[in-house]
Amino acid sequence: MVSRIIPVETFDLVIFGGTGDLARRKILPGLFKRFCDGQMPVGSRIIAAARSELDLSGFQDFVVEAVEDALGTPDADQISGFVDTLDYVTIDALGEEGWADLAAKLPAFDKVRAFYFSVGPSLFEALAERLHKHGLVDTETRIVVEKPFGRDQESAKALNATLRRHFDESQIYRIDHYLGKETVQNLMAVRFGNMLFEPLWNSQYIDHIQISVAEDVGVGGRGAYYDKSGAMRDMVQNHLMQLLCLTAMEPPSFFEPDAVRDEKLKVIRALTPVEPHHIVRGQYTDSSDEVTYREDVGDPRSRTESYIALKCHVSNWRWAGTPFYLRTGKRLKARDSEINVVFKQTPHSIFGPEAGEHHNELRIQLQPDEGINLRVTIKEPGPGGMRLMDVPLDMSFAEALGEDADTPDAYERLIMDVIRGNQTLFMRDDEVEAAWAWTDPIIQGWEARHDVPKPYESFSNGPTDADLLIERDGRNWREIGR
Ligand code: NAP
């Protein structure tokens, strides 16, 4: 198969926080891959900006190392071509140092121009103001902002208002890297590009939907940040809700940014408030040689959750009566993320009770490998009569697509969408605010009750209460790491 790279226009991408962890692990290696695929037209530049006093060769060495760490030893010609596109400016977002230097590097608006705010949100306002003050933006300039986008609806609204004082909504790209995953977009292709699924995609045929994002790592070095956030703010309000939206939304009339985002917003607004007994918070405890959550964050009395499981409902005609079960956690059994669409049983089994219960299931796998897998019921082979079993119809991208399965990392794809000016996979202001409006009362409820998360053993499936949450309904979680 021939890989199809869609060309983009020549661009200048300025990365504020260009020496940070995200730039080193994701943004810069991702851009290198785009360069290797010929998606950085001649004349395009990547300008990193941070307070560290680095000269250009120091920054180039930093990038070579980042690429090696992320992707292994690169081809000598390719990496030398890539480092030629780099530039660096020492700048303080909160001061005046470096801004004239940056302006000198960007004398004319003759290319696509984007500023990636890969810094903490407390710097967004200062950056936006200084970009304007120094004449670095025009009406076509784009800004990319990282999560966390607020910590509740009020702060998200304030952040949106700040950004919108300086930029039009069409210039603001709020990144959620889950939306850049190949499989997440494939979810839309599977739903809206096939006749097979959409007629069945409703509460008449779907028993329930599970969305699981399990990580095997703990909070590690991010403890200080994470302890002020927790799984609800860090994962559910953004990544899991976005996955839920794409799974539950109505077909947009066209695959176009506002049409898709309008449909996602309708899903968020149709979510009913979660009953307190439909939610389980957890916190990882000991295993033989690992530290506990509280040790990780350095607070022996921390009440922040590293795990959430909840049941919710999308109250509209399509989904009335079909529960959505969401769960996410750290230090679980495996790194394993999946959306499971579990269909109902056939209304009548012609094979009798001994055939047992069988459900078709569509599994959309996001991590560690991406792929889609449909479980169908067939006859168990052999002479043992009409016994039934479930087998997968597999579509692992790696196997099915061969060399084309080397799909771009989510960040690569999303950065290229910024350059193309396509906001479909970025969150709009009203979506973010609506998502907070749904999670805020849940978090406020815990705070008011001084709720203490349930302990769960490291590298397990999570707290046993989370099992009870779904077992009470006569269902089971799919096994993590299966
Ligand atoms: P980080 O490792 O702490 O890096 C922060 C960067 O910002 C550094 O390059 C730092 O360089 C620069 N910086 C700090 N203060 C500055 C100032 N006053 N003026 C100019 N530059 C300044 O943070 P990160 O992990 O890369 O995260 C960056 C953003 O992405 C955060 O909003 C984070 O929440 C978000 N994010 C990160 C990840 C991840 O995996 N790391 C994932 C999702 C979202 P100097 O100190 O040299 O100035």
Automatic annotation (TrEMBL):
Stretches assigned to the Glucose-6-phosphate dehydrogenase C-terminal domain: 188-478
UniProt-annotated binding residues for substrate: H177, K181, E215, D234, K330
Keywords, in A-Z order: Carbohydrate metabolism, Glucose metabolism, NADP, Oxidoreductase
EC number annotated for this UniProt entry: 1.1.1.49
Keyword Protein transport belongs to the record: no
Catalyses which reaction(s): D-glucose 6-phosphate + NADP(+) = 6-phospho-D-glucono-1,5-lactone + NADPH + H(+)
Residues at the catalytic site: H239
Enzyme class, broadest EC rank: oxidoreductase
Binding site for NADP(+): G17, G18, T19, G20, D21, L22, A23, R24, R51, K147
Record carries keyword S-adenosyl-L-methionine: no
UniProt pathway: Carbohydrate degradation; pentose phosphate pathway; D-ribulose 5-phosphate from D-glucose 6-phosphate (oxidative stage): step 1/3
Pfam families given in the database record: G6PD_C, G6PD_N
Residues of the Glucose-6-phosphate dehydrogenase NAD-binding domain: 14-186
Homology family: Belongs to the glucose-6-phosphate dehydrogenase family.
Function text: Catalyzes the oxidation of glucose 6-phosphate to 6-phosphogluconolactone.
Protein name: Glucose-6-phosphate 1-dehydrogenase
Originating species: Cognatishimia coralii
Lineage: Bacteria, Pseudomonadati, Pseudomonadota, Alphaproteobacteria, Rhodobacterales
